[in-house]
Amino acid sequence: MSDTIRFTLDGREVGASPEESIWQVAQRCGTDIPHLCYSPEPGYRADGNCRACMVEIEGERVLAASCIRKPAEGMVVHSASNRAAKARAMVMEMLVADQPAKTDAHDPTSKLWAWADRMGVSESRLPAHSFAEVPAPDPSHPAMRVNLDACIHCNLCVRACREVQVNDVIGMSGRGHTAKITFDFDDPMGRSTCVACGECVQTCPTGALMEARLLNEDGVRVEFEQQTIQSGCPFCGVGCQIDYHVADGEILYADGADGPANQNRLCVKGRFGFDYQSSPERLTVPLIRRDDAPKEPHAKLDPANPYTHFREATWEEALDRAAGGLNEVLKRDGSQALAGFGSAKCSNEEAYLFQKLVRAGFGTNNVDHCTRLCHASSVAALMEAIGTGAVTAPFNAAKDAEVIIVIGANPTENHPVAATFIKNAVKRGKRLYVVDPRRQMLSRHATRHLQFKPGSDVALLNAMIHTIIEEQLYDRQYVAARTHGFEELVEKVRQFSPEEMEAVCGVPADVIREVARDYARSEASIIFWGMGISQHVHGTDNARCLIQLALITGQVGRPGTGLHPLRGQNNVQGASDAGLIPMVYPDYQSVAKQEIRDLFEDFWGTDLDPKAGLTVVEIINAIHEGQIKAMYVLGENPAMSDPDQHHAREALARLDHLVVQDIFLTETAYYADVILPATSYYEKWGTFTNTNRQVQIGEPVVAPPGQARPDWQTVQEIATRMDLDWTYQSPAEVFTEMAQVMPSLKNITWDRVVRERSVTYPCDAPDRPGNEILFAESFPTEDGRARIVPTDLLPPDELPDAAYPMVLTTGRLLEHWHTGAMTRRASVLEDIEPEPTVAMHPRQLRTLGVEAGDMVRVATRRGEIALKARRDRNVPEGMLFIPFCFEEAAANILTNPQLDPFGKIPEFKFCAARIEPAAQPAEAAE
Ligand code: SF4
Ligand code: SF4
Ligand code: FES
Q1: Is 401 helix (H, G, I), strand (E, B) or coil?
Q2: Which of 34, 536, 765, 872 has the most C-beta neighbours closer than 10 Å?
Q3: Where's the 2Fe-2S ferredoxin-type domain (predicted)?
Q4: How far, in Å, from the CA of 258 to the mean position of ligand 2?
Q5: How many Å apart are CA 708 and CA 729, to the nearest integer?
Q6: Among the atoms of ligand 2, which is closest to the Cα of residue 570?
Q7: What span, in angstroms and rounded, lies between the C-alpha atoms of 502 and 765?
Q8: Diameter of the chain by CA atoms?
């Protein structure tokens, strides 16, 4: 404790750590000191520019800014002396002089006005700025308003943008009286490179930057919350926690809460994407297909008017019809004629109940969900090598790494808050290598971007492994003590020298060697990967290579090291853990192992199918083959998310009976016989597990619309109509049952998750935090060692040729999540990215003879779509990138359904395509 600094604060002796400021010590001791340019939130450094926090220090002539001043041994500080209080009041009066009057304040509840009220300053005796000096209001952004007449130049938004979220858009331009906040090169905010994370709005203490929807046309706040409820974000696997501000049953705005994953940060989706919840297109009553509305494979329904094809029904009638159809097929054709798709957007409890219904009620393991389409190959490789499918370290571990590799992932778009922590780490001097055929925002921060040829992952990664082995950079002790299979790997990678692989992967041999050396030699290296790795016919091999890199160098199990596949949907980790997978029960326990099956048969009180079930794409194929005749789809949208969409939609239309449970009339619901209205994330209790293995509570924020019901209740209603004796009273009861068969939930109870809001698994004791970094000593395999599985070159399934000379790759956009069912109904997100585009290199546009914004036609062997061309220097020549969220030009009409043999994941990231100008020119889409 010799580091503790003892000093006197307001007559009381207190202790401070060397990092603490006087303000922080005072706060900790219960003394509130005014502050405006300082934010105590994580990630903000003190700047000491507003002087609102001045205190008196004995022996010093001038007052000190307590937010930035550190205490010294023996110092005597008076936080509320007459002199300090008067000086602070004068500062406040000067600031108020330059503000619009409180009656016209953009935000009369802002931090500035709250402190002014507490200090008794309601107006100023000092002259105000002349109007000419004040920048005009900027209404250019769909989500945020800029009213710089309220700006006090505190610089917090600049730090928010540059240092916390590291987007580098906001700056301060000019000097003295001409100083002002600017976006890029003094552009209107809406035309700048702003990514709308809203961090600046959350931190601005005056209302100069605010959510547009709270203001009237004069820029005055007219919407105020009645309550604030903390819950989570429904979009990606980062698992941000959010404070939702609610009035009259409606979400008004969202602020980042201090969850372990996000530490107050949000991205555009979490902050501005919530209003899909109140979309007029929400399903509010159960629906049954009309007798005069046969299923057409390529029908396009209007989600705002389901009554062209469906009629309203009571819950009783709809549930009876839904379960009746399933029972009929079960009786007539047997268990293997049934299948279910659950969802990675549902809670852990809903996922568990759904797979239990399919296994115990349908009598089959034909249950899967969209993990099959994103990280199934990563999970297959991880399970094979280290006996678990989850990450070995959280993404926040980037701060402890020396070298960070991001491969086949675009986190600034797909996991934006995770990306901020990677950028923070780079700012602190860590080395970042981005490895991807497409360049991206993160490349600007990277030590190097390795732009390898699409589909040549194994060549590049094996060449890195070759270098590490050839140059003896591997960790002998670790390899000997912790792995099997190293000798086979040595043999295999002999043929993969960087010099030979250069021609295959397009990365110069010396660069491959340099990155391999840096990764192996660094004190701590961590790898993040995404669907660029997994969505290939060689996706499992790609992931195997990454695992080998970590294993042979011992870069796992210590702070700053590890393997982290960035999980896609908000609960894809949890849904997989809960058993929404055809070959395993909850916690990845194999359905094929007799002793495990015995356990579950005993626990669920029924016989279970001993055979692994079919996966997502296999189920679609089995419908075509006439095996699967009826399905229950809960929150999944295979008509949009599956490859070769015409094939998938034709399958859905062929089903004898389809039950869809969802919040919107999705493209899959077009083919339903019965539609059951579900609750959105914001309307229910449940636990959700993010990419970091953090089990987090989701709490209802608003009421469900109309007759929509929580999914767990509806699944139970179907189950009881299929002779299952279920009497669950709450999600808490379901969680308690799950914990009995899921070792990963040991020491984690529902009450604990509600109380702590987030608990990481695995967890050693009920009163201890979970383990963030895993496998320091051993792996959860039979003998505790990891298994190395060498890999060979396997080309993509469909290579470009004369007829289809381009490579098509697909993915997500920052603003739109997955199939767009939610984000395309979120007004701000749709405003920013309203239409489908195909991105390509500027030289490609020239070769094609089109301008950005012109209509083009993209075709593959499975179909064609027309959409606007977009100029994007990040896309290499010869490649096209199309997001898969736009129904009007659905990318998955084009994609190749060929599967990775282990993960059974389709090759979304690579197929041969052709592009040509289309007849209709249109306006610019840049
Ligand atoms: S806009 Fe707000 S946060 Fe930015 S400098 Fe002005 S007052 Fe501070
Ligand atoms: S989409 Fe992901 S990164 Fe963005 S706020 Fe939600 S959880 Fe966080
Ligand atoms: S809050 Fe300390 S100087 Fe502004």
Answers
A1: coil
A2: 536
A3: 3-83
A4: 13
A5: 18
A6: 7
A7: 50
A8: 92
Mean pLDDT of 175-184: 89
Alpha carbon separation from 385 to 128, 484, 548, 743 (Å, rounded): 68, 9, 9, 20
Residue type for 112, please?
L
Each residue of 657-684: pLDDT tens digit? 999 999 999 999 999 999 999 999 999 9
Q: What is the crossing angle of helices 348-356 and 711-720, to 10°?
A: 10
Q: Are strands 227-232 and 241-247 parallel, antiparallel or unpaired?
A: antiparallel
Instruction: Provide the 3-class DSSP secondary structure of residue 507.
Output: coil
Strands 525-529 and 483-484: unpaired
List pLDDT tens digits, range 738-775.
999 999 999 999 999 999 999 999 999 999 999 999 99
CB of 155 closer than 6 A to ligand 1? yes
> Is residue 712 a contact partner of residue 678, using CB atoms and an 8 Å limit?
no
250 forms beta bridges with 247
Question: How far out from the chain centre does Cα 697 lie?
Answer: 16
Contact 744, 577 (CB under 8 A): yes
Asked if residue 918 lies in contact with residue 855, where contact means CB atoms within 8 angstroms, the answer is: yes
Across-strand partners of 709? Answer: 678
Do 197 and 146 touch, CB atoms closer than 8 A?
Answer: no
Helix (H, G, I), strand (E, B) or coil at 670: helix
291: left (phi over 0), alpha (psi -120 to 50) or beta: alpha
Question: Whole-model pTM?
Answer: 0.96
Q: Which ranges of 273-375 does DSSP label H, i.e. alpha helix?
A: 315-333, 348-356, 371-374
Q: What letter represents residue 106's amino acid?
A: H
Q: In degrees rounded to 5, what are phi and psi of residue 288?
A: -125, 135
Rounded to the nearest integer, the mean pLDDT of the chain is 95
- Provide the edge-to-edge strand list for the sheet that holds 338-341: 310-312, 287-289, 674-677, 657-662, 630-634, 338-341, 367-368
Residue found under tokens 């929150």? 635
Whose CA is closest to 918, among 853, 863, 860? 853
Q: What amino acid occupies position 655?
A: L
- Write out pLDDT tens, residues 430-465: 999 999 999 999 999 999 999 999 999 999 999 999
Residue among 267, 395, 569 to mutate when testing ligand 2 (max atoms within 8 A of CB): 267
Residue nearest to atom 4 of ligand 2 (CA): 267
Evaluate the CA torsion angle 479, 901, 238, 160 in order and state its sign. Answer: positive
> How, if at all, do strands 758-760 and 694-698 pair?
antiparallel
Q: What DSSP state is assigned to residue 218? A: T
- pLDDT for 360: 98
Calpha distance 322→57 (Å, rounded): 74
Nearest atom (ligand 3) to Cα of 68:
2
Please check whether residue 150 is in contact with residue 106, taking contact to mean a CB–CB distance below 8 angstroms: yes
Burial class (CB in 10 A: 0-12, 13-18, 19+), 220: middle
The per-residue pLDDT for range 22-79, each reduced to its tens digit, is 999 999 999 999 999 999 999 999 999 999 999 999 999 999 999 999 999 999 999 9
Q: For residues 646 and 297, is the Cβ–Cβ distance under 8 A?
A: yes
Nearest CA to ligand 2 atom 5: 270
The whole-angstrom separation of Cα 373 and Cα 365 is 18
Q: If you count them, how many residues does the chain have? A: 926
What sign does the CA torsion over 565, 566, 568, 570 have?
positive
- Going by their DSSP bridges, the two strands 525-529 and 403-407 should be labelled as parallel
Confidence bin at 132 (pLDDT 50/70/90): low
Which residue among 27, 38, 115, 156 is best mutated to probe the pocket of ligand 3, counting the most ligand atoms within 8 A of its Cβ? 38
What is the rounded CA–CA span in Å between residue 580 and residue 597? 16
Identify the pLDDT of residue 568.
87
Query: What whole-number distance in Å separates Cα of residue 694 and Cα of residue 571?
Result: 10
User: Which residues make Cβ contacts (< 8 Å) with residue 805, sequence separation at least 6?
Assistant: 878, 912, 914
